[in-house]
Amino acid sequence: MQRIFAADIGGTHARFGSFFRDAAGVLACEAIAWKNSAELRTEHDVLHAMRSALNREPKQGDTLAIALAGPVSGLRGRLTNGRLRLDLAEIRKKSGLRHCVLLNDFQAEAHAVLTEAGEKARCITAGAHAPKTAARAVLGAGTGLGAAMLAPHHCPDCGMRWLTIPSEAGHTPFAFVGQEENAFHDFLRRALHVPWASAEHVLCGRGLALLHSHLSGHTLTPAEVGATALSDDTPTLRWYARFLARFCRQWICSTLCLGGLWITGGIAARNPLCVESPYFREELVLSPPLGALLRAVPVRLVVDRNSGLWGAARAGLTSPCGHTANGRK
């Protein structure tokens, strides 16, 4: 049995979990705990928090896998919205762990598609039947906006494997259509002091709050907008659902994810009307040349709030050839 200690660390919450692969090769969860991530500064703080949360020592596991909401290079990374800086090379030496894996949070969300969290995602559009090896994709909006994809890869030693491919799609310019939307674009540029608005500027929590302010004249927090304007048929819901669907459409066309698109992130999970409304479904396939392709892609909403943790754990699984699912020895 392989035991994986996993962490999914964002700007607000740090999730910790103990997972294992059973005799049938299935990833299972033993324990999950949440902590505040604001106090985390170094890898030693992370290990201390993990010991406290799970009541286990790292050396009791085979692999430590950490997903981080920020840039990652090898075993080093930093939290974008926080002070945490990680270097897992030192931890591996001191703890005696066989494997350490550090990955971006949306690479972890891509891995999560292949776990229990992905299997239990809510169906938004059924799509068409696709080969099991068809590419898959994931995106999600919360404090920021992320996107990644899964592509099949043949390993000579252990057969077909999945590669997670990160992206910076959230930082590309957003496509506004028509006079009204371009008026919002001007409002957004002035509010954010930017030359042009990215998809993240539009779809993240702050963008949602600014959209509501532009449409209603009321200034609310993103959570307040969700509670008051995304639970019913309001102008804010209509606009936000269309904007989210437009980004989904662009990501489907970019990745050709015939195996499905999984939508994650706090905004859609807490406010499912964003993806269940007719405004989302209509905008999603609004592309005359590619309508048939877009209708063929299954779209699912991830409702498990620990999906990134499941994904990090899966990234730490080792194959018969000794590689982790994230591709490292």
Please characterize this protein's 3D structure:
This protein is an alpha/beta fold and 329 residues long. The chain folds into two domains: 2-116 and 306-315, Nucleotidyltransferase, domain 5, CATH 3.30.420; 123-301, 3-Layer(aba) Sandwich (Hexokinase, domain 1), CATH 3.40.367. Helix content is 38%, strand content 25%. It contains 14 helices and 14 strands. It has helices at 43-54, 88-95, 105-112, 116-119, 178-192, 199-203, 205-216, 222-229, 235-255, 266-270, 273-276, 278-284, 291-296, 307-315, and strands spanning 2-9, 13-21, 27-36, 63-68, 72-73, 76-78, 85-87, 99-104, 122-125, 136-141, 145-155, 159-166, 261-264, 299-301. It has a six-stranded mixed β-sheet with strand order 9-14-13-10-11-12, with helices on both faces. Helix 7 (205-216) crosses helix 8 (222-229) and helix 9 (235-255) runs parallel beside helix 12 (278-284). The longest helix is centred in the C-terminal third of the chain and has 21 residues, at 235-255. It starts with a strand and ends in a 14-residue tail after the last helix. The mean pLDDT is 92.
Quick tags:
alpha/beta; Nucleotidyltransferase, domain 5; Hexokinase, domain 1; 2 domains; six-stranded mixed sheet; five-stranded mixed sheet; 14 strands; 38% helix; globular
Structural class: alpha/beta
**Discrete helix count:** 14
Proportion of beta-strand residues:
25-35%
CATH architecture of the largest domain: 3-Layer(aba) Sandwich
| Shape designation | globular
Low-pLDDT windows of residues: none
